[in-house]
Amino acid sequence: MGRAPCCDKTKVKRGPWSPEEDNILKNYLEKNGTGGNWISLPQKADLRRCGKSCRLRWLNYLRPDIKHGGFTEEEDNIILTLYRQIGSRWSVIAANLPGRTDNDVKNHWNTKLKKKHLASQNNNFLDIGYNFTNNINSSDLNHNYSRNYHGKLDYSNTFTSHMDPNVTNYSSKNCDQFPFPTLMEIQENDATIQSIQEDSSLDSCQIFQKCVTFEETNTCASTFLKSTNNTGCNYMDLSSGISSSSSYYDDILENGFDFQENDIGGVDPNSSYYNNILEIDQLFKEFEN
DNA sequence: AAAATACACAACCGCATTATA
DNA sequence: TTATAATGCGGTTGTGTATTT
């Protein structure tokens, strides 16, 4: 025994509404209102439609002051915030967005915001980092797997090092404590590269200056510390103290924003870590889908 | 240029809740 | 008070259009 249908499906029209039908429904409702009963409305308005269909058409489309599409960033933020608080209670979320219907918010979520939400969730998750360690020259090297703000796979490493017993991890958070290697020689070229004697745990270090344009609007001239070791390159912006071991900087400096699909920040494709990280990336991609 | 695929949004379905007789 | 109808809601599907192959 199924549920009793709300109307005779063989006698009502289904699918998209024609402009004529819209006019009939709109005119009827503006003149008479719902009369407190959607089920009997189609008959009274002379529409071959199910009452529920009429209600939906009116509430989601024909009703005055309804906005369609063009969600603003502020609206997106409200939806994202509320979704995180109360989940998929679309009518409640829509009630906080004047002119928006629950159906519209739900559609917008399913087509656009869900990805944004998942990405930020994954970013939060990935920010914690994937860690594994091994010993290189008596330094503990922690390998962190994360996403940079472009959503690109990024790989960085931090040291639990013998260099300073009071500092357990060298990262962007405490890079001001990073013991700089001794400057041994200076070379000049068009990128103003200064070569520095390598530190015991680094194969080589360079300081260089270059003007970098972010997204065509945000330009910054930074002095970077570039260090290389056997897992790849590391860049630290000496003015902001932000470091990144990433081909992200490589790509900006060398190719603008022309990222390669499978770039992994800071990882030498010939290194033993590369396949390992690709595997991890595959797992994350599956998790994202 | 045609077919396949992806995307956006409208509409439907059935269950839960609320209103009414 | 309770049975039934109407309404509200959210998951899901359908449809037209845009983009890619």
From TrEMBL:
<dbReference type="GO" id="GO:0005634">
    <property type="term" value="C:nucleus"/>
</dbReference>
<dbReference type="GO" id="GO:0000976">
    <property type="term" value="F:transcription cis-regulatory region binding"/>
</dbReference>
<feature type="domain" description="Myb-like">
    <location>
        <begin position="9"/>
        <end position="62"/>
    </location>
</feature>
<keyword id="KW-0677">Repeat</keyword>
<dbReference type="InterPro" id="IPR009057">
    <property type="entry name" value="Homeodomain-like_sf"/>
</dbReference>
<keyword id="KW-0238">DNA-binding</keyword>
<feature type="domain" description="Myb-like">
    <location>
        <begin position="63"/>
        <end position="113"/>
    </location>
</feature>
<feature type="domain" description="HTH myb-type">
    <location>
        <begin position="9"/>
        <end position="62"/>
    </location>
</feature>
<dbReference type="Pfam" id="PF00249">
    <property type="entry name" value="Myb_DNA-binding"/>
</dbReference>
<keyword id="KW-0539">Nucleus</keyword>
<dbReference type="InterPro" id="IPR017930">
    <property type="entry name" value="Myb_dom"/>
</dbReference>
<dbReference type="InterPro" id="IPR001005">
    <property type="entry name" value="SANT/Myb"/>
</dbReference>
<protein>
    <submittedName>
        <fullName>Uncharacterized protein</fullName>
    </submittedName>
</protein>
<feature type="domain" description="HTH myb-type">
    <location>
        <begin position="63"/>
        <end position="117"/>
    </location>
</feature>
<dbReference type="GO" id="GO:0010597">
    <property type="term" value="P:green leaf volatile biosynthetic process"/>
</dbReference>
<keyword id="KW-0804">Transcription</keyword>
<keyword id="KW-0805">Transcription regulation</keyword>
